[in-house]
Design brief:
heterodimer; A: MetI-like fold; B: Rossmann fold; six-stranded mixed sheet; elongated; Spermidine/putrescine transport system permease protein (chain A); transport (chain A)
Chain lengths: 265, 404
């Protein structure tokens, strides 16, 4: 009798903990094996503890180069997609123009289409236009698929904004430029930030589309995939763990800042 | 102001100002002058063009024809941020990402004023919000938000303050309180207020001058008492308070008094108070307000002084609402005459079914053109009830009266 009652009362917590374990175990394995000193080429069995990989994160040929390339592309793709996507979202949410309905639909396509198809067709396009594969083709491809996510996130935000707020600003002597920077942008900011974060994450770990358009360039996901055939270096685990920790810290910092603002207000 | 014109004393002057959206005309060419320092109300049902008119003054809508002058200056081509007016928006439109203080300081800062502290403090005191300066709008009650909206507009000392249904979102009690508050502030700061509302009581309580709008036109403009006593159309007669409108025919005129016949009865109407052409044989509407009518039991008919308009009838419905009792009386001139009797001494005989005589001073009768919709200005439900059955008309009217 009592155990069932206890179970009933704590079911939600138990389910939550189980889901958390399910999500965290792979990350913890990656973390654990970043401290491994593997016997042979493959880092799949525990040998003994070592901090070698953490002390020499760039000790593997080509890895940090690919990481730099991925980060660079992710930053540029995020900026490009966020600026373009925000403008597109405002156009779609605020104005009536010829081709608006078509644009609205086409914007969703990159999200719905299989990545292989997009990657292959983009590759064909670049090939036919005789554009050299490399940094720029990867960047163009990434901006393209990130754009949809930014437009979707920002549009939802802009649609829910009260147009009278901007009218009120104008009524209170704000020029159109001031209205945009003082009212519109701050109000749309959460949507823009969400779009930008999504863009960065999507760009950083994209493999399929990138592999069709990279030419000789090697991004970090491509490096990981390539090295997995020959034996993954421990440093990959180090980078993976570092990214994971950084993301968690950023999210926590964001929540703390938000919580403090709420408490102060 | 800058260029003195004959009408420089007007804070706002609209000349032939009109607005249409495609084939739909929201505001017909409109001439309107708002004297400086006055409390002016634009009154009408929703969709009558009153908000569009206000937005044209603010510069948020461009008129399709005509001009807008503010204090003698033509501002028709000026964008809203260059006009010396400020608006209190419906639902307030407070900036949600700024606190009360920054909301109020917004206009000053945009005009490049650096030290806003003293002014913002004074303004927050005026609307009694000093302690809440660091709150966000969503942390305030409706009435507090409303006062922030007023403070945010007033701090700029505009030539004209525009109010777009500013009390519409508040509950009844708070609304009454804010009406008085707004009136107090207007007297204190001496700025011209242009107030848009659909609430006739609100307009009459607060404004010096009321313009009644209907279907994109101003039906009538004047002081509240003047509009109430001398309505120029059936719309105004029905929209402002309640009117009994009796269809009648002109039988003759003598000494400035028109003699009318209706339902076989004779009624008198001062010719000066008749808005319609009134040659012998013309049809007019004779109107009288329900509170001007005295109700007497048929047995007391002899006590009625001579020279008054008399109509016999039978009480159909009565409802006691405290300050007065409202009767609906079936009579030969009209099946549902309304009579409001002040609650002084109640006559127990005046119950539904009782035979009565209605009488009133002919001076209290007004005449209107019969070529217009007699039900204009009544809301749909009430107009329908009037057409259907007198009993229902009575309950609908009393229900509405009780709700006010």
């Amino acid at each position: 009798m009592r155990p069932t009652r206890w179970l009933r009362r704590n079911l939600v917590v138990i389910a939550g903990v189980l889901a958390l374990i399910y999500l965290m175990v792979p990350n913890l394995v990656v973390l654990a094996f970043s401290f491994n000193k593997p016997k042979g080429r493959f880092n799949y069995t525990w040998n003994h503890f070592s901090t070698d990989a953490w002390q020499h994160p760039c000790g593997v040929a080509g890895m940090c180069g690919s990481l730099t390339l991925s980060l660079k592309i992710a930053v540029y793709a995020t900026i490009g997609a966020t600026v373009l996507g925000t403008m597109t979202a405002f156009a779609l949410a605020r104005y009536r123009f010829r081709g608006r309905a078509a644009t609205n639909m086409l914007i969703f396509l990159p999200m719905a289409m299989p990545e292989v198809v997009m990657g292959a067709s983009l590759g064909t396009l670049f090939l036919n236009m005789r554009i050299r594969f490399g940094f720029w083709t990867i960047l163009i491809a990434h901006i393209m698929f990130c754009l949809s996510f930014v437009v979707t996130a920002v549009k939802a935000r802009v649609m829910s904004m009260d147009p009278r707020l901007e009218q009120a600003a104008q009524d209170l002597y704000a020029t159109p430029a001031q209205t945009f920077y003082r009212i519109t942008l701050p109000l749309a900011a959460p949507g823009i930030a969400a779009g930008a974060l999504l863009s960065f994450a999507l760009s950083f770990d994209d493999y399929i589309i990138t592999s069709f358009n990279a030419g000789n360039s090697v991004t970090f996901p491509m490096f990981v995939w390539g090295s997995a055939q020959r034996g993954t270096p421990v440093q990959v685990n180090v980078i993976g763990t570092a990214m994971f920790v950084l993301a968690v810290v950023l999210v926590l910092a964001g929540q703390l800042a938000g919580g403090r603002r709420r408490a102060r207000g | 102001m800058t260029s003195p014109t004959p009408a420089a004393g007007d804070a706002v002057r609209l000349t032939g100002t009109a607005k249409s959206y495609g084939a739909f005309t929201a505001v017909h060419p409109l001439d309107l002058a708002v004297p400086a320092g006055s409390f002016f109300a634009l009154l009408g049902a929703s969709g009558c063009g009153k908000t569009t008119t206000l937005r044209m003054i603010a510069g948020l809508e461009a008129p399709t024809a005509g001009t807008v002058h503010l204090g003698g200056q033509d501002v028709t081509a000026l964008p809203p941020y260059k006009r010396p007016v400020n608006t209190v928006f419906q639902n307030y439109a407070l900036f949600p990402h700024l606190d009360v203080y920054e909301n109020v300081a917004f206009g000053l800062r945009r005009r490049g004023i650096k030290s806003v502290r003293k002014q913002v403090g004074e303004m927050l005191d005026l609307v009694q919000l000093g302690p809440l300066a660091r709150r966000r709008p969503h942390q305030l009650s409706g009435g507090q938000q409303q006062r922030v909206a007023v403070a945010r507009a007033l701090i700029n000392r505009p030539q004209v303050l525009l109010l777009d249904e500013p009390l519409g979102a508040l509950d009844l009690k708070l609304r009454r309180q804010m009406q008085l508050e707004l009136k107090r502030i207007q007297t204190e700061v001496g700025i011209t207020f242009v107030h848009v509302t659909h609430d006739q009581e609100e307009a009459m309580t607060m404004a010096d001058t009321v313009a009644v709008m209907n279907a994109g036109r101003v039906e009538q403009m004047g002081a509240p008492a003047d509009l109430y006593e001398n309505p120029a159309s059936t719309f105004v007669a029905n929209f402002l308070g309640t009117s009994n409108l009796i269809e009648a025919e002109v039988a003759g005129e003598e000494g400035g008094t028109l003699h009318l016949t209706s339902g076989g009865l004779r009624l008198s109407l001062p010719a000066a108070r008749c808005r319609a052409q009134a040659a012998v044989g013309d049809r007019v509407l004779a109107g009288v307000r329900p509170e001007k009518i005295t109700l007497a039991h048929r047995d007391d008919e002899d006590a009625i002084p001579a020279g008054r308009n008399r109509v016999p009838g039978r009480i159909v419905d009565s409802s006691f609402i405290g300050v007065s009792t409202q009767y609906v009386v079936d009579s030969p001139v009209c099946p549902d005459l309304e009579v409001f009797v002040p609650n002084v001494g109640r006559d127990a005989r005046l119950a539904p079914g009782a035979p009565v005589v209605l009488h009133w001073d002919p001076e209290h009768t007004f005449g209107l053109d019969a070529h217009q919709d007699i039900d204009a200005g009544l809301d749909g439900l009430e107009a329908e009830a009037r057409g259907a059955a007198p009993e229902r008309a009575g309950t609908a009217a009393t229900a509405e009266e009780a709700a006010v």
